[in-house]
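User: Could you check the structure of this?
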Amino acid sequence: MFFADRNQAADRLADALARYKGQHPLILAIPRGAVPMGQRLARALDGDLDVVLVRKLRAPFNPEFAIGSIDESGWTYIADYAYSAGGTPAYLEQEKQAQLDTIKQRRQQYTPLRPPIDPAGRTVIVVDDGLATGATMISALHALCAQKPARLVCAVPVAPPDTLERIRPYADEVVCLAAPADFRAVGQFYADFPQIEDAEVEAILGQG
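Assistant: Sure, the predicted C-alpha cells are below.
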C-alpha cells in the first residue's frame, strides 16, 4: 500500500500541485470518497471547493465494475468492453436513466442553496481518491472541458497505467502519484479506506 488514508493522499497531492497555489484554483471532487480530499486540497492551495457530479454505469452482473459513465448533462461515455460485459442497449438506457436520477438527487442534496461554481476561465483540478477503469473521471473531465476552464487538471493518488493513458486526452495535465502494474482495486493502496457517507459530504460542502 502507498497511503495511510485519504488525508495523507490528499497532502501528497497538494505537494505535487503546489505550483497552483496563488492561482485560486477550483477544486472539484468526485463524490463521495474524494470530497474530504478535495477539502484538504482547497485549503492547501487556497482554492475553492465544489463537487462534479458523475456516476458510473454499472455492469449488469457486477455493480462495482464500470462499463461507462454519465455526467450531469446526460452525456455518456460507454467503454469499448461494455457490450462484452453484458451491457445491452436496453440495459444501458435503463442504467443511464437510473444514474441520471441519482445525480439530480445528489445535486439537490449536496448544494441545495446555490448553483455549481462556474469553472470558466479558471484553473480547475478534478480530484478522486483513485481510478480503476477511469470511466467516471472521463465523464467529469468531458463535462468540465465544455465549460471552458483556463486549465483542466486530473489529480489522483493512484491508478493503473492503462487507465492513465485513457484519461490523458481529456485533460491538460494528469497528476498521479503512483501507477502500479499490479492494480486490482483502489482500496488496496490505502491502510484505512472507509466509506464516506452523504452526511459528511453535506457537512463539508456546507462549510463553503
